[in-house]
Amino acid sequence: MHDLYDLAIIGGGINGAGIAADAAGRGLSVFLCEKDDLASHTSSASSKLIHGGLRYLEHKEFRLVREALAEREVLLKKAPHLVHPMRFIMPHQPHLRPAWLIRAGLFIYDYLGKREQLLGSEQVFFESPDSPLKANFSRGFEYSDCTVDDARLVVVNAMQAHEHGAKIMTRTICLSAQRMAGVWVLELEKDGQRLWIKAKALVNAAGPWVAQFIQQSLALKPAYGIRLVQGSHIIVPKLYAQNKAFILQNHDQRIVFAIPYLNQYTLIGTTDREYTGDPNTVEISPEEINYLLDVSNAHFKTPLTALDIIATYSGVRPLCDDESDNPAAVTRDYTLALDVTLDEAPLLSVFGGKLTTYRKLAEAALEQLKPFFGDLAPHWTESALLPGAEQFSSIDQLATEIGYKIKGLDEYTIQRWVYAYGTRVWSLIKQAGSVHELGLNFGHGLYALEVDYLVEHEWAVSSEDILKRRTKLYLQFSVDDAQQLDDYLTALHEHRMKKNVA
Fold first, then answer.
1. What per-residue confidence (pLDDT) applies to 107?
2. Which of 14, 43, 30, 36 is nearest to 168 (CA)?
3. What separation, in Å, do the N-terminal and C-terminal C-alpha atoms of the chain show?
4. What is the model's pLDDT at position 224?
5. Total count of domains within the chain
6. Could you tell me which residue ranges the FAD dependent oxidoreductase domain spans (predicted)?
7. Average pLDDT rounded to a whole number, residues 442-446
């Protein structure tokens, strides 16, 4: 007897997790499977921004920008521990874009969407020696957008879905799906074992694999073409003191961000290039490294070489093919393709999308599926707080409360916990009252109590899950430290398996 769900979702990135949360909160029974870890591909390889997309105005994508601008405000309220305002500075280069054009774009950016918490744009002047920019940059423009922990945004949406009854299974491959007797029958594989489920509707949110899944696992033809566009970033030591980001114009008409990252680093990216390889193995190319270094060195006083790079990451954006000649100009808007015929179970495939607009994409997906679920509850996610935002007063207040509760805990770990978990930190801490009750310290403030919490509540399995996507401590951990963590996780998994058998 196979379990029957209302909705099965393939893909544990931001779109899959967002749709799962929305659907589960409307009363649907939901199953989501992800072949790797949550947010393990495109959704954790972003520029870590919740932004309207200032440069999309040049491509006349006003609908997308308006929606994204409004969503900045929504997400600031839904997840104040993960989404934070930041000022962005654009040094002016008259030969690339005239001042009047930038002023006009920023005026539209200020007023196209609702803006309640964020400051408007203004002209700024750079004074040496205080400015981190080279002397030829004398003025620029400053405006507001937001930063986000992208992978954690995915995780908290999966948590919200789970808390509304959804079944979330990571490391689970969907081998095939077939329409049979009015429902979808999915064949899955987890830990070498085959299992089957049924679903009244199927959502394909496989990201870079969206078209491949349709062709290979469903034996159907995709409704739209897809273009894979690679975006890469480099992480370097902190380039400048102030906590503002820079948006750097380049001679190819593209822009590159330099963003303060984790207090110690500067994040520089992104690139745009066609990608034809395996999305599982995407990595930065030497040409991309040189491109990002050249843009940075053309702007900042502090010179960078490849030897300064601490880490890199790359992702593949699955964009709907609009036949643009320029990868940077391919639309970032999303397209939803509904495949259904009389008396057959529906298939909804997600093409494209942005981290910023995931919630609106989920609402649009549920709107398309509404005819198949007559008793579907209305929209609810706009005002619903994400896990960790409940009873959230402020960053400083929560940090003070944690420091008071856990005697001897260092300030760095307190801040990391606040920004990662928000008020869910109390579920992590449990009854602990001092640092000595947090268990084994794996290094850099990662204690066994936190690891156990991530395994139990956030689907973490490996050291990579924890260090790269849950805590961002991978930049500080050595190979040996990570191996010690993996050994602990293996022992913990074996203990849990024995306990379940018993």
1. 92
2. 30
3. 24
4. 80
5. 3
6. 6-323
7. 97
Range of the domain at 464: 395-501
Query: Residue 494 pLDDT more than 80?
Result: yes
CA nearest 248: which of 104, 145, 141, 327? 141
Whether the model pTM is above 0.85: yes
CATH of residue 220's domain is 3.50.50.60
In a domain, 400, yes or no: yes
Tell me the C-alpha distance between 369 and 346, whole Å. Answer: 8
Strands (E), 217-288: 226-237, 245-249, 255-261, 265-269, 273-274
Contact 156, 387 (CB under 8 A): yes
Is residue 233 domain-shared with residue 141, that is, in the same domain? yes
Domain boundary among 324, 358, 383: 324
Same domain, 352 and 274: no
Q: What is the pLDDT of residues 268-313, one digit of tens each?
A: 999 999 999 999 999 999 999 999 999 999 999 999 999 999 999 9
Confidence of residue 326 (pLDDT cuts 50, 70, 90): low
CATH of the domain at 111: 3.30.9.10
CATH, residue 440: 1.10.8.870
Q: Identify whether 167 is part of a domain.
A: yes
Query: What is the CA 38 to chain-centroid distance, rounded?
Result: 10
At residue 201, φ and ψ (nearest 5 deg) are: -145, 155
CB 54 within 8 A of CB 109: yes
Q: Which residues 6+ apart lie within 8 Å of 19 measured at CB?
A: 9, 203, 205, 350, 361, 362, 365, 366
Q: Are 191 and 218 found together in one domain?
A: yes
Residue at token pair 């074996």: 494
Place of tokens 């690891």: 451
User: Does a structural domain hold residue 404?
Assistant: yes
Q: State the helix-helix crossing angle for 14-25 and 358-369, rounded to 10 degrees.
A: 50
Answer whether residue 243 is part of any domain. Answer: yes
| Distance set, CA 154 to CA 17, 38, 44, 134, 469 (Å) | 6, 7, 9, 38, 10
